[in-house]
Design a protein that fits this description.
single chain, alpha/beta, Aspartate Aminotransferase, domain 2, 2 domains
Length: 380
């Protein structure tokens, strides 16, 4: 029986939400831009979904929601809309969607400043604030580090940024936070990116929450028929959006209970691991959905394949390039970890479907596979 512990990469679609949204594939398949009654009805459905999702983390009177195709698109639209002058400040722990987009801004002549991380993957707030000045157009700080689970207090950081420069626009990638940790957008947070498939939604749906005072300056990333109030053209994925809405309804209804249970599961898994082999990278006060460890003297990728053979699916913080040269996670290295630690990284990530039995089985599989690999390598 497979144990799936790579939920930070993607989650199993919420079956109940799929069933509830099926009518938008069948009887309610109409184009929401249509002026006939059926199209107008579907347009109303999307409006209700938008208001529901907004109400989960923001005041709909102060924040708008643009539906996109994914979290990466949302991140890109935020950065390319507001990181257009002076300098842009990001953290060394940003998801590739922000990090690569910021790199392209640098190619276009915008100065890029990168704030360092603490060893658990959270940003060094004092160092970040020292990088903000009168020419800072945008600051982007990931809410939950997708590789370590460290949680940044983005509301407090945003407020501190605004004290240094009230004109600076503040964005946060909330993909690993939305529906997983308690949160309401603070008044200083201007933009917040989310993704459906991280919480039981289907792939192909994302969102960008935009504070209304920043809304007029938000630039379209896709041009065309003017959907999403002209901010994101392309016929809306009505089934995907409605399924996202229903998945979020279930997720937020159980958020507190899931949070407490998964903290216990995460800690039970950590306590069961052989400490002579595994060291912990994730903080104790991080997201309950992520536990990142490093296997001493072992390659995370090699261990991952052994685990897979035993029915345990996990993620890894490192990858091999096509020419077989070793590459290490820039985020793990930015935490001040050594290349050896980065090479041994495994990321175990959970969902509300995770069970205590799976945790117990995973502990045994991890310890047994690590011991087997160490034996093969003649590591005492």
């Amino acid at each position: 029986m497979m144990i799936y512990f790579d939920n930070a990469a993607t989650t199993r679609p919420n079956g109940r939400a799929v069933q509830r949204a099926a009518q938008w594939l069948e009887g309610r398949f109409f184009n929401p831009s249509g002026l006939y009654r059926e199209g107008l009805n579907v347009h109303g459905d999307l409006k209700e979904a938008r208001q529901f999702l907004l109400s989960r983390i923001a005041d709909p009177a102060e924040v708008c929601l643009i539906f996109t195709a994914c979290g990466s698109e949302s991140d890109n639209q935020a950065l390319f809309s507001f990181g257009v002058r002076g300098n842009v400040v990001i953290t060394g722990g940003e998801h590739a969607a922000v990090f690569a987009a910021a790199g392209e801004l640098k190619n276009r002549g915008v100065e890029l400043r990168i704030a360092p991380l603490h060893e658990d993957g959270s940003v060094n707030e004092e160092a970040l604030l020292s990088l903000v000045d009168e020419k800072t157009s945008l600051v982007s700080v990931i809410h939950v580090n997708n590789e370590t689970g460290a949680v940044n207090d983005v509301n407090a950081i945003a407020a501190a940024v605004k004290k240094k420069n009230a004109r600076t626009v503040f964005h946060s990638d909330g993909v690993q936070a939305f529906g997983k940790i308690p949160y309401k957008m603070g008044a200083a947070v201007d933009l917040y990116s989310v993704s459906a498939h991280k919480i039981g939604g289907i792939k192909g749906v994302g969102g960008l929450f935009v504070r209304k005072k920043a809304y007029a300056a938000l630039r379209p990333y896709i041009y065309g028929g003017g959907q999403e109030d002209g901010k994101r053209s392309g016929t809306e994925n009505t089934f995907g959006i409605m399924q996202f809405r229903f998945a979020a309804e279930d997720k937020f209804a159980a958020l507190t209970a899931d949070h407490a249970r998964l903290v216990a599961y995460r800690e039970a898994l950590w306590q069961g691991l052989d400490k002579a082999v595994f060291s912990r990278i994730s903080p104790v006060d991080g997201s309950p959905y992520i536990l990142t460890v490093s296997a001493r003297g072992l390659r995370g990728e090699t261990l991952l394949h052994l685990l897979d053979d035993q029915g345990l699916i996990v993620g890894t913080g490192s990858a091999c390039s096509s020419n077989a040269k070793r590459r290490y996670s820039r985020v793990i290295l930015a935490c001040g970890r050594s290349e050896e630690e980065a090479d041994g990284v495994l990321r175990l990530s959970f969902s509300p479907e995770t069970t205590e039995t799976e945790i117990e089985r995973a502990v045994k599989i991890l310890n047994d596979c690590a011991a087997e690999l160490r034996k093969r390598m003649n590591i005492a």
